[in-house]
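Sequence in, structure out. First:
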Amino acid sequence: MSCKNMINKNLFIYVCLAVSFFSCRNLPNPEDSFPIFLPSNILDYRGTPSSPGDRSSLAFSDRGAWFAYGFSSAEEKTLGFSGPFLMTQGQGEWSSKALSHLALIYKGTQEELDLEDFTSSQTSYNSHLKQVLENEKLRIEQNLFFNSPHSAIITTKITNLSNKAITLQPDWQGTAFSIGLQITQEKNTISLKTDRSTAKGIIQVFEGVITNISKTDSSYSISLKDIKLEVDETKTLTIAHTFIFPEYDAVLEQQELELSAKNPQRQLQKRIEEKTKQLSALNNNLDTNWRDSTHKDLVAKTVLTLQNNTRIPAGELKHAGIFPSYHYKWFLGFWAWDSWKHAVAVSHYNTVLAKSQIKAMYDFQLDNGFIVDCIYRDTTIERHNYRNTKPPLSGWTVWKVYTQDGDVDFLREMYPKIVKQHNWWYNFRDFDKDSLCEYGSTDGTLVAAKWESGMDNAVRFDHSKMVKSSQKVFSLNQESVDLNAYLYAEKIYLVKIAEVIAENEDTEVYRAEAEDLKIKIQKQFYDEKSGWFYDTSINGESFIHVMGCEGWTPLWANVATDKQAEAVKNNMINPNFFNTKVPFQTLSASHPSFNPDRGYWRGPLWLDQAYFGVVGLHNYGYHEEAYKATYKLIHNAEGVLDKGTSIRENYQPISGKGLESENFSWSAGHYLLLLLNE
């Protein structure tokens, strides 16, 4: 994939940074009236960005916003929050070290508060970010939360701890990175625009508050009316950052923001209550093995990881969905099989988002049933990938979401689309028309065909070649066991869906097809000598003897015989093969090509495949083995149970070290599913 720094003339992002100052009001602190029972500091957001492309720290987001924030590093105390990190800019870029930070000047001496004299604490929750600075004279508390997908509110409460009145002059300041925001002044506003003309912004000050505005091409200062604090008195400043796309109603957003700004503490309390309710419901449904506080903290981490990656519809994306990871520059889009997995996990606490994630991919379904591999908001930055699709898991996903809320209309809407997608495989990926499918590509390239499997560089494809059956139908010269196991499972889910929506004729068709496919899978892909399922040559006459994670997919799909499942189980729990420190990795540890460190799909542990393995063991009654593997997956993978450490894309199975991208969604989603035993 390549990044093209082109200007999208059709895209206009209106950015409103609304600043309001409420004087002489003692607003209630939600943490005084509403205790926070949420886990704290589950992820570490500390780190002042040094440049727009700095990826050294994480960023907090909520409600599907396309922007995010962090804390300043310990070395840089500031009354403000890092960022925002703008996912509307290129592949995601920091706009500033702190676009809006507060300077406080003691009236009389004209000395600015020296923050080095203050003790400081920074605390993050699933609901908001909080920092407190305190010395013998003042206590300053800042909270940042997302009031909507478009607006984040920052409140600053200043309390006089001394024995005499204090007068302060507040000054909001900000400096943008050079590639980001160019700042100009018009009357009582500060206007912002990007150097690529993809965004426009405004810092709007409410009437009667400003005493002075000054600016340069990339910085600004807004001086506010003096505040006098009597002994023990608290006063609150409020600033709101709004980033809104042109397809949304900016006027309505401004009206709602002004209402919230009248009592931001109440709005923050609502966010805390929503997050508390969300996590409580999940914790009540945990498997009995994982109901202690340690595993409940992991639940919070999984949800927060998915939350940070959630985006509302924008540009070409017509439904909300979840990035694999906002933290990695090439993952700012939606991928098909990531989406199916995200939706299953998210359905346990947000079926609306789960359905939206599914529909986001089906928005791009072609008339022939093809599902695009990945989609993006702005195709001048990154193009949708039509070179290949991804494994057929949407039937599983739709059924799992339905079991959470019983929405029959959703089944009716999705059923014909799944059928078209299901039939596409047999029309365009069955080279020899034997009802067993192969991975392939639309452009005939081998690399795209490997991508279609989702296991890009897997050892089983090392000697693969392309075969062509017509002008635009290209397959690998091998039939893959996981693909056909997925198709078997999808036939079973289509039967379930058809029964609910009374598509009675279809149920018999898919039952018969499933039974026929089951026999084919059991006979063609299973090797009795080694007790494993393998890919085969396209004619089915020879095995591709690479013992990989695809070999337990038939157990997940419930397509193996009991005898076959027992043999596969024995190989899975063999420490020489897959029962490593972090078990059920992508390739047997005994294989000569095993590369556990940076091998991607040639040895590292991926949570989605490990999850399929655990579910497969449960399916055949091997519960003890499944629970032992789950324990090792959770406890032996580096940082998973540690506060502050993000969930990684994959893990080194021998050492447990976290690898590749941070804040990775499907890893988080599958950890949640393991904890729920779903």
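Second:
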Amino acid sequence: MRYRSSPFAIFAAMALILVASVTCIYVMGMVPLHRTAELVQRQVVLDHIERVLTTLIDAETGQRGFLLTGDDAYLQPYHDAVARIHGEIDLLRGLAKEGELRQADLDQLLELTNHKLTELDHTIDLRRTQGADAALAVVRSDEGRVTMTALRTHLSVMADQQLAALRTARATADRFTYYRNLVFGFVTLLNLAFLAWAYGRIQSEMRAQDETAHELRRQKDLTTVTLSSIGDAVIVTDNTVRVTFMNAVAETLTGWKFAEADGQPLTTIFRIINETSRQTVENPVEKVLRLGSIVGLANHTLLIRRDGSEVPIDDSGAPIRDEQGNVHGVVLVFRDFSDYKESERRLTTAKAEAEAASRAKDQFLAALSHELRTPLTPVLATLTNWEGSGRFNAEDQNDITMLRRNVELEARLIDDLLDLTRIAKGKIQLNTEVVDLHDLLRSVKGICQSEINAKHIAAELQLSATRHYVNADSARLQQVFWNILRNAAKFTAEGGHVEICTSDCADGQVCVTIIDNGIGMSQETMDRLFRPFEQGQDEITKRYGGLGLGMSISKALVDVQGGTIAAQSDGAGRGARFIVTLPSVDPPKVSSSSAPERRRSDSGQSLRILLVEDHADTARAMSRLLKSLGHQVETATTVAGALDLAVKNNFRLIISDIGLPDGTGIDFIRQVRRHSNVPAIALTGFGMEDDIARSREAGFTVHLTKPVNFQKLEMIVQQVANDHAEPG
């Protein structure tokens, strides 16, 4: 008997296949959903890891502010960060218990975090009990940086693990979605085939309609699931600007449930204003319908929620088009912008605080400069007067010259300390001239001779360069070689040897090499040598002292003058070699006139000078020196006294300090300029760029910084007088 399949068997087989297929689709559909939940959880872990790092940075910022200023107000961010970090750690503990984070990683993070917080507490306690130097010594020990680096590395590893898990989960979700679509397609084809067999051609149109309806439902369901699953808020409207869909995030942000908002005008649900003007912002859906394109919301937009509270939002709206390109709705996607706004506010606050700290630092440096320079002025003036008097024997004259050079060098050291700010801002000022390197090196050796002699070091000059002239700032260049030679003497044992050599190099360069047989340097020391406040190993710093500024400033000064500086050593105990290269120039033409003397030449003018100076020693020494140059000098110590003298007398030149008891030299010269154009020189301990700009703006002809080189002062006095001489 021939077996014939009955319709019932066909229906039963199709039912079984359908049930199996639906079950498979359901299982494969649940996997992406679970993986999506895992993606969200992994992202939460990543967010907590990032907040741990940013919170630790906030704590360290607060601690550094307190260490530098001693102001408890800087500790508020620190205390806030410490409170937050414990909260973040507790949240990570919960995630570890749920299996989202490895316990070993959490334990290591907790250990590093506790170590960092202990270090921060310790430095704060040191600052309170022992002062800034003790606390900053701990900071300079590099322990904090090492701990923070370890924290960054560990948190990065934890983040990488979470990212790897994210990628795995996403790949699994994509794979199962693909399989589900394949099964779904297979079942659809099978059903279509079954419908074709069952109903035949007479049901073809109905079948097509069913298929279309099915596809629309599937697309709608898929769209609904997608929009409901994303992390941003989503509102969908029709082309009459009425709400047709809201996801859970949109419900949270607006305060409206979709069941209540469905069919409502968007302007009722989504009320937005400009956060600055408080004016109503154009409805984004209406703008999309009007323009027919994607539009972005301004990031200064506030959403007024149902309860009247406000939340900053950001993002965009886009048109929904059918197959013919007609717009039949708009999808509006937005997000809570509060965290960004808070970060922006914090950044603005931090910038303002940094700028205020920078201004305070500049004010402190200006005051420090004035206080350090002022006492040197009368000393230098007196030594200059003695040096040019001719009243001393040769040995005493040499001693006076040596003293004057060292006082001038002390002033240069003060300038170098302040030059750290100028170097950072790229504002190093140079007074270039043609300089004989050989003469300059002999002078530097003379300055360092006492230190060399004290340790019985044999210092040898081997000046072999044929092209030994350079276009440079003589004082700055002298400071460079003084730093190198002084270090060579400092780090060379008694009875050691130092060589100062010059030679011609390639490309028209002249090389200066200073060699010693001292303690030498490791590679690590040479790597750190030209950094500010670095002196190599701690034991060397403790033994030899110093600030660690000389070589960093020297490098900056050589670089800005077109040269190079390098250090070499074969290791500890094997000496060191410093090589400075500079572009050489032709020697200057020999002038027929004799070198300028400190005394007024026969061609010099005798001037009537008003000297305004409240520092008694400086006023006395300056007055004596100017009189020795043949000038007539009257002194005043206050703005009022100076104004009285300026009105009653016909002075040819005014030399004035800036800081005076009853005002400033700025005030004084502004009042003088109301009735007189007499040339004026500002001679002051304030030498920052802003100080110079203010004095020039007020009406001073020249701004000089104490203690001034008096040969330079004499030249400027005569030059200013000649430039403003009355016609004969």
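Remark: Residues 231-336 form a domain with the Beta-Lactamase fold (CATH 3.30.450.20).
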